[in-house]
Write a structure and sequence with these properties.
Elements: E1 7-11, H1 16-27, E2 31-36, H2 39-46, E3 52-56, H3 62-75, E4 81-84, H4 101-126, E5 132-136, H5 149-168, E6 174-178, H6 200-211, E7 219-220, H7 226-230, H8 237-260
Helix pairs in contact: 1-6, 3-4, 4-5
């Protein structure tokens, strides 16, 4: 991936990781199109940045994704990087019968969303010089957070899909996986204040430094996520799962206390 001068489409660009990285790419000289459902949030993220453009997109609507892709290519013919970042995360109790609306929405947004948008843009990207697709997964793709089972499963699925995509597009489009650790964002209630999670700006700085490398690593991994990525390879999966489950429950409880002021 070029270290400057790209035209990047960033889904989920109105907040959190998407917004922070859009700013980093803009600062280094890229043009960034940030996409999401909430126009107000997108416009706030783009404020004062002339090379950040705002478009609305609902990745749950398959027909809308195809129409969106056609319009984006028409408006930004130099588009050469797709950044599949949009995602949702819900905590779920699997111990009894439940409403599956959250699980189904998570599957649609986190799996079908990137697959649909990649499919809609692939013919264009293959024709562009220095084209790249970046899929955002998670450390939970490698060691699941049992309190968020569907989210963890979707990230494991996109990790696997990314490996296949990279192999099929070799020599045509660069395919990169970004796997964040727990980052202080609003992905889940209280997460922005959760102890033990990586501050958003620190994470964005570390990621930007890796994207500045030549060649770009095929996997972007900050230090905090490496134990998850290497757990199974190093024979530490069971130990890491147990530690993560206990620590995550403690961190959520601590974050809830901080947020409530107790």
């Amino acid at each position: 991936m070029k270290t400057s001068g790209n035209t990047i489409l960033m889904t989920g660009g109105g907040s959190g990781i998407g917004e922070a990285l859009a700013h980093r790419f803009h600062d280094r000289g890229d043009t960034v199109i940030i996409a999401g459902r909430r126009r107000e949030a997108l416009e706030k993220a783009a404020e004062g940045r002339e090379r950040i453009h705002v478009v609305t997109l609902d990745v749950e609507d398959a027909a809308a994704v195809d129409a969106f892709a056609r319009q984006i290519v028409a408006d930004f013919p130099t588009l050469n990087v797709l950044f599949n970042n949009a995602g949702i995360m819900k905590f779920e109790d699997l111990t009894g019968h439940r409403d599956l609306a959250d699980a189904e929405a998570t599957l649609t947004t986190n799996i079908l969303g990137p697959i649909r948008l990649t499919n809609a843009l692939i013919d264009h990207l293959i024709q562009q010089p220095d084209a790249a697709i970046v899929n955002v997964t998670s450390g939970l793709a490698f060691v699941p957070l049992v309190a968020a089972p569907t989210y963890s499963a979707t990230k494991a699925a996109i990790h696997s899909y990314t490996v296949s995509l990279r192999t099929q597009l070799e020599g045509k489009v660069e395919v990169i996986e970004l796997a964040p650790p727990g980052v202080r964002t609003d992905l889940t209630p209280g997460q922005a204040h959760r102890p033990g999670y990586v501050p958003l700006q620190d994470f964005a700085d570390a990621v930007a430094a890796q994207f500045a490398q030549t060649p770009t690593p095929s996997e972007i991994l900050v230090d905090e996520v490496r134990p998850f990525r290497m757990a199974e390879r190093e024979g530490k999966f069971d130990e890491t799962l147990k530690t993560l489950t206990k620590r995550a429950a403690e961190q959520r409880a601590a974050g809830d206390r901080i947020q409530s002021g107790n």
